[in-house]
Each structure stands twice: as structure tokens, then as C-alpha cells.
Amino acid sequence: MSCNRTETLLHAYFDNELDPGGAAEFERHLEQCPECVDALDALHRLRSSIGAAQLYQKAPGSLRRKVLPARTPWRWLAAAAALLLCVYTGWQIASSHRDDQTVLAEELVDAHLRSLQPGHLTDVVSSDQHTVKPWFAGKLDFSPPVRDFAADGFPLQGGRLEVVRGRASAALVYGRRKHLVSVFIWPMAAKDTDPRSGSLQGYQWVEWRHAGMEFCTVSDASRSELETLQALLAK
Amino acid sequence: MSNLDPQEKARFERLVIPHLDAAFNLARWLLRSGVDAEDAAQEAMLRAYRFFSGFHGGDARAWLLQIVRNTCYGRLDRVKNMTEFDEELHGPSSPTPEALAIAGDNRERLALALRSLPPRYREVIVLRELEGCSYKEIATITSIPIGTVMSTLSRARAQLQMSLSEKAST
Question: For A157-185, what is each residue's pLDDT tens digit?
């Protein structure tokens, strides 16, 4: 004896997917169909053993850290600093023959890419230079120039802390039409240099030294746009 | 890459990021590997972030899980093409009694039985029993009609019950 309701209505009833009228009708059916009663029992047993087995797999911490916004920038910074120091040391050993400029560009392109991950773009979100600049005070041992160039087509979006060559640095984020530009700034006791530029993995970078600081911009915007921003920043 | 304004970014963090566990859980069961699932969940989150301007409210979990599912099936197809090996065709359709006997406790037995289901069955069980999704949500996530959700679920449960009873009878 087979019950043709088993396949369909039984599951909908079990999952509370029937409307009250349908559920009442099915319950009347249950009163005279031992087969459906047994099948319903079996479904309850299956569900409780699935529940008891605790099969739910929560996101591991490593994934959480990659995806969640940095709520505790300093802890994140410490971890990033340690990681970058390891990576950088590894690099030094593995590629001491490589051009220093290329190594730096790689590091900064990676940092720019990392910042594009959800929640990593900015630690302080503001288009107001008077909000962003004080935010850096106390977090850095130098004072990066923070200016909004919205009138010139580069609106300031915010800032965040980065670790460049193992030391805390400022990263400013500017918008450029649909693109984002990261500007990395760290202190450098050396005389001013003219901008140098290059490209890596489809990203452009422009680097220069000015007023005791080293600047490097990274973006998927065009080289000429980065040069325009460079001229604004160096003014 | 699209650039969300700060307000949209905050909305993304409020609506989508809380479903990270759901994203990982589905990827973990579909791909059956923790490492692959972590990659896929991250990729799906990134896609969700990119396409967030196209999300006009509603069920954010279902919207995200749809992206996770597509990401996972993309990966499964790639692997299939690379190895030209279709596990669904060539692999055991249910765990062997020996494997189940070795698996021993309830958790191991169930995990093994669930892992052995074809992906289309596995996903409805995961979504219904682990994630607690309604038929309507499952229909959204898997892009199959509600009636088909119901029949797939009933077949998936029957197969799961069968693999588990094979153990009991050995």
C-alpha cells in the first residue's frame, strides 16, 4: 500500500510550508494513514540526528579576518606589520638582486589590492581633510600632508594606516572617476627626487620624494592621471 | 572595481557581512574542502561587494547565498573539465557500508552520508536543515521552482535516510 501524498505534501507539512487550511487537511489524512505517520516520524528522526550532529561549519577566523572590516586597527596593524616584516625579510633574502624600486612597487600594489577588499579601504572615511588629518595624529610619528583635490577631479575619500617597509605609514584614498587611487606616504630623510613611474599587474605607480617624505601613488587609473595627482600633491 | 560610497559600504557591512558563516557553510558542503570553501567564500564576498549596487533590498542572505552557489558551481565545473572526471557519474552514489561502519559516531556518519549526496541534493539539505531556509528562499538561491525544491528535498531526504539505514543493517 503506497500513499501518493508522501512525496509531496508530507515534506511541505513537515517543513511548515502548508497554509493553515492545507495543514489541517493533511492532519485529517494522517489520522487514517499509518504510512504517512511513519514517514513523518522518520523525518523527525532524521532532522534530530542532523541537529545533534552539529554539521554547521562556521567561517574560520582566517576568512573572517580577510573579509571583516578592521574594527581594531592597531591589532590589525601589528599583525600586518609582523606579516610584512616576514614577507619583506623573505624578499630581501630571496631577491636581493632585484631592483629595489620594483620590490617597493610590488609591495604597494599588493597593499592597494588588499585595500580593495570589502571593509579594508579606509579606516577613517571622510572627504574632509580636517577630519582625516587629525585622525593620523598620534597614530604616526610624522605628519602627512592631507588635502582634498575634489575641485581638480580627485575627491578625498579617506585614509588608513599601512605598513611600508616595516614602518607605519599613511595611505590616503582619492577617487578618480570610477577608479580609486592609494597615496602611500612615509618619512624619508633624503633629498627631493623627480617622479619615477612604472606599471605592475595592470596597475600604475608614480613615486617621488618631497619635503622629507617619500610618496607613491598606485591605481588602475591611467599614468597621466596619476601624474596630474602627483603635480597637485607636490605643489 | 566598483567603488561603493561610504553609506553603501556601511550598508554592505550591516546587511551582507553578517551572513559570512552561511556563505562559508554552503561553500564548505558544496566543495567538500575547507581550503576551497574559504577561497570560494572570499571570492563570493568580493563579487557581492562589486555587485552590491544591484541589490535593491529584500533577503540579503538569499542574495549572497545565490552568489556563493554560483561561485561554487563555477569551481566544480572547472575541476570537472580539468580532470574530465564526473564524480556524480563515477563515484559511489552512497557511502560504502565499510566506510559507514568505520565512521562510527552519529556526526561522522551523517557528515559522510551528506558528503556522498550529489551536489543538487546536498545543497537543499544544507539550506533547509542547517541554514533553516524556507522553500521560497531555497528557490531563490538555487534558481529552481518551489515545486521542484519540494520534490528535490524529498528525494534528497530519502537518499540520506537510505545511506544511514545501510549502516544500521550492517
Answer: 888 888 887 778 899 999 888 788 999 99
Q: What is the ipTM, given to two decimal places?
A: 0.85
Does the distance separating the beta carbons of A69 and B45 come in below 8 Å?
no
Sheet holding A213-219: strands in order across? A124-125, A156-164, A167-176, A179-187, A213-219, A203-210, A193-200
Q: What is the pLDDT of residue A97?
A: 44
Collect all residues of chain A within an 8 Å Cβ-Cβ radius of residue B109: 53
Local structure of A88: helix, strand or coil: helix
| pLDDT at position B54 over 60 | yes
Instruction: Mark yes or no for CB contact B21/A60 under 8 Å.
Output: no
Domain spans of chain B, in order of start: 1-85, 93-170
Q: Is B9 on the interface with A (CB under 8 A)?
A: yes
Average pLDDT, chain B: 85
Which chain A residues have a beta carbon less than 8 Å from that of B28? 57
B1 confidence band (pLDDT: 50, 70, 90):
very low
Chains A, B: CB pairs < 8 Å: 112
The count of C-alpha atoms lying within 13 angstroms of the C-alpha of A63, restricted to the half-sphere facing its C-beta, is 27
Task: Tell me the pLDDT tens digit for each residue of A196-206.
Answer: 888 877 788 89
Question: Which DSSP category does A190 fall into?
Answer: S
Q: CB–CB of B42 and A67 under 8 A?
A: yes
- B29 and A50 within 8 Å at the Cβ level: the answer is no
From the options 3.90.850.10, 3.10.450.50, 3.40.50.150, 3.30.200.100, give the CATH code of A61-234. 3.30.200.100
CA–CA distance, A92 with A87 (Å, rounded to integer): 9
Quick check: A15 and B160 CB within 8 A?
Answer: no
